[in-house]
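Could you show me some protein's one-letter sequence and the numbers that encode its backbone in two labelled lines?

___
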Amino acid sequence: MPPTGSVWRADAEPIPGDAFVPDAHYDDVVVGAGLTGLVTALLFQRSGRRVLVLEARSCGAVATGHSTAKLSLLQGAHLSRIAARNTKGVTQAYVDANRAGFTWLIDYLAGAGVPVQRRTAYSYAQHSEGVGAILKEHETARRFGLATHLVGELDTPFPSTAAVALEDQAEFDPMAALTALAADFRAAGGTLVQGTRVWGARASDPVRVNTSAGTVTGERVYLLTGTPMLDRGLYFAKVVPLRSYAVAFRGVDAQIPDGMYLSVDEPSRSVRDIERDGERLLLVGGNGHAVGRHATTLHAVDNLIAWTRRYFPDAEPTWRWSAQDYEAFHRVPFVGWLPRGRGRIFLATGYSKWGMTNAVQAALTLVADARGETPTWARTLHHRITLPRVMAEGLGAAAATGAWYTRGWFSAWRAPSSAEVLPEEGQGVLARDGLRPLAVSTVEGRRCTVSAVCSHLGGIVTWNDAERSWDCPLHGSRFAPDGGVLEGPAAQPLARCP
């Protein structure tokens, strides 16, 4: 089994930051130093505002640094799914927004000297049952202005039955992009603070932001993490948290096809190349599932490796990692004002696995809104309506969440006493101290015992054996074995137990 960690972060130089200044005041406070946060911060800072970026861990530690980093307007079968859940105007606005994000990022990376590889993007069917989805995606893409074309069986080592293609898309190293953005932001006078977790924000005037290092204030606050840690607006219930996996391979340079590939049928497969230090690597991703609801996540990684070796026999896995995405029921991101934020707190979430274009369009939207220059596509997306199909999907998701809540507590009450539990290395199990649910794990020879009750809304966490973490099946919060927060919406750790 290859080591755990993103290939992008494996040898990336640490991104420099600044010291936290308690009680300091800023024009804009941006929470999250991924692609959305750093593009937003840079645009505001360059316009003459005083901007602070707060990052709980380090730049790119979560979604951006663990992305497959495909920059494409052809997004699997995503556009036809959007069209089935929204009006024509909203679907067109989504395409226009993503085109704006694509163009801005391509131009920025060129100006910053970050290497970009232009590739044809392919959405393909692995089985004959997927051909209908290919035809539908092609028809939808053409209807909304994308110059796609149909392809028969692909000339690739892995099987396909049909595909739709869009030329002149792009791929890049997301950590190289973040390094450039952070450097430009700080050079423009911005302040980047890493290792400081935001616990909450009060919509006063100015907004008070409470962090693990103290309090700061800002005229406006932008919550640009995977999902907001504030529950106003109930966005945690409007998106589905999804976990997917990726493995980088070497030893197959000559066999790697020229293109970016994403299957439209299951099991999901994402394929691209990586140009790195004079070597060409193969990146394979897929096997996504709802967070905390998969019996063994390590099997998802093993399955990716087995699939790759079936079609690339000489492939040698070098790195494996996972990423978390949030899918809105209508498949269009939420970008704009946070309810009850008094026009001072803003958010962006729900990119549905297409963060490279959507992160930038979200940043462009937020900055344009602040300047009173909202683009036509953003105005349309701000005022979209929720159709009956989307309402039904939301109700179904809420019912499933409730079922997982009940199932979790039932399992916790049936768990053995913590005194009887000694998990094997790399494993975690539920236990009890009386009626108190506990999460007990053994990682690197150390036994950790923490509360099994998620600090967000009280779900019972489950063990993720691929990443050795405790994951909440309700809304996707994730915790380290010692209880530290890895993913929101939870802002507080799991309570430590003796």
The chain has a mean pLDDT of 96. The domain at 7-66+175-237+331-386 is CATH 3.50.50.60 (FAD/NAD(P)-binding domain). Residues 388-414 form the longest helix (27 residues).
